[in-house]
Design a protein that fits this description.
single chain; about 270 residues; alpha/beta; 6-stranded mixed β-sheet; 4-stranded antiparallel β-sheet; about 25% helix
Length: about 270
């Protein structure tokens, strides 16, 4: 009868067989640990993504509450209201808001649970509700901008003459969606409030603080800011000069506007 290779194979000593078994067990344990670690990372990433989504929903809920209350649709009375699917908000009036000052309410948005105490994501915004949504220009700014005293005000594209050979202003307010051209030779010594949708064609020399309601919109070779620049009530450190020593957030996008400004601060 022919002899097979298996029958000719040398026998593995008993001690070596035990060692191989131990190595095999260690490999199984190592592979299992790697699999558990990978599953944990995947689960952690998914949880982080879900937390981010809930956090954004809570923020949007608070913003929605501000808009609905400031437009007169709701009262600031701590009654919870829905803000889309899976998100809610309520408003605490100034006396109990703990926001500082006597005109700031606190709007609290949350997501992930109908009851705030159970919600995994909560966002607070302190806000002057009388000003939110657009309260108008500084009190010095009459519709007739020539009578505004130390303020030059533009409510239409041609309200301020671009000026020839350079023009200097003390303070300036520019209303919603105004597009000013030829401003590259302007110097503004004081402060500037630029409402929603404003566009400046050219880059003036801003000597004082500049407040953009929604987004910074200039064109030119370089922005020239000598002090603090705020966008939507928050300090923009990239645009601000090294001499800026302002607060990181404001109660309103323009602190000089009537009723305390139009907009809100994200201080909490």
């Amino acid at each position: 009868m022919p002899i097979t290779g298996a029958e000719n194979a040398p026998a593995i000593p008993r001690g070596q067989r035990g060692s191989l078994l131990l190595v095999a067990l260690l490999l199984v344990v190592l592979v299992a640990a790697i699999a558990v670690g990978a599953a944990s990372l995947v689960g952690s990433g998914a949880a982080t993504g879900a937390d981010r989504v809930l956090g954004e929903k809570a923020l949007f809920a608070a913003q929605s509450g501000i808009l609905r209350i400031s437009e007169g649709g709701l009262s600031c009375d701590e009654a919870p209201s829905g803000a889309g699917e899976g998100a809610w908000f309520y408003c605490t009036p100034p006396g109990d808001a703990g926001c500082g000052g006597d005109n700031r309410s606190r709007v609290r948005g949350w997501a992930g649970a109908e009851v705030e105490e159970d919600a995994p994501a909560v966002h607070n915004i302190c806000v002057n509700l009388a000003a939110a949504g657009g309260a108008g220009p500084p009190s010095e700014c009459a519709e007739d901008h020539e009578d505004a005293g130390e303020w030059d005000c533009a409510f239409d594209d041609d309200d301020i003459d671009p000026g020839q050979g350079g023009a200097t202003f003390q303070n300036m307010y520019v209303g919603d969606n105004v597009r000013l051209t030829g401003v590259g030779n302007w110097t503004i010594e004081g402060e500037v409030c630029l409402a929603n949708g404003v566009s400046l064609q050219g880059t003036p020399d801003f000597r004082g603080n500049v407040y953009w309601e929604s987004a910074e919109d200039t064109s030119g070779q370089a922005r020239d800011y000598d002090a603090c620049v705020y966008v939507a009530g928050a300090l923009d450190e990239d645009l601000s000069s090294d001499d800026c020593d302002g607060e990181s957030t404001l109660d309103a996008w323009c602190p000089h506007a009537e009723e305390g400004g139009s907009g809100w601060g994200y201080s909490d």
